[in-house]
Amino acid sequence: MDAGELNEHLESAIRQLLAERQQLLVMFCRAAGIAPGPAGEDEKSLLLRLCQLLMDYAALWQFEVHDELAREARRSSAGSEMLERVQPILVETANTMLDFNDLVDSALAEESLMDLDSHLSSLGEALAERFEAEDRVILAL
């Protein structure tokens, strides 16, 4: 694969990431409106969709975008340094996303959404931090 093809593949992966980010944000905002208490079918479906988007987003970054960025960063010292600098943030926020997924699984098994607001708030902060870190890497290239 030559540099032009790599750039095209990277650009395509970034476009896909941004499209999935938008879907994730829409679903996150919808989930933020869920009231505490018993989980109805609509709430369950919404939370399951949010969790699926979280896992898909994390996987897309890790297996598509990150690998391409790492290759591209080898040509750009600024990109390489930025990718290395934000990697701990990306790992930490991926863990937050996984923890939220596990929490939702447990909450839905118990059919109770108590304390969802505080967990959604923490997830929202982690997502904001992650998006900023991803954007810094992308812009550094």
Nutshell version of this structure?
With 141 residues, this protein is mainly alpha-helical.
Distance between the termini: 19 Å
What is the top-level CATH class?
Mainly Alpha
- Would you give the CATH topology? Four Helix Bundle (Hemerythrin (Met), subunit A)
Could you spell the SSE succession in H and E letters?
Answer: HHHH
Uncertain stretches of 5 or more adjacent residues: 1-5
Sheet-strand content, in percent, reads under 5%
Could you tell me the mean pLDDT? 86
Counting DSSP H or I runs of 4 or more residues, the number of helices is 4
Task: Tell me the CATH superfamily.
Answer: Regulator of RNA polymerase sigma(70) subunit, domain 4
Query: Main β-sheet: number of strands, strand sense, barrel status?
Result: none
* Total number of distinct structural domains: 1
What CATH architecture would you give?
Answer: Up-down Bundle
Structural class: mainly alpha
Would you report the number of β strands? 0
Helix content: over 70%
Shape: elongated
Estimated radius of gyration? 17 Å
Could you explain the architecture of this structure?
The chain has 141 residues and is an all-alpha fold. It has a single domain (3-140), classed as Four Helix Bundle (Hemerythrin (Met), subunit A). It is 87% helix and 0% strand. The chain has four helices and no strands. The protein has helices at residues 3-32, 41-73, 77-110, 116-140. The longest helix is centred in the middle third of the chain and has 34 residues, at 77-110. The radius of gyration is 17 Å and the shape is elongated. It starts with a helix and ends with a helix. Mean pLDDT is 86; it is low at 1-5.
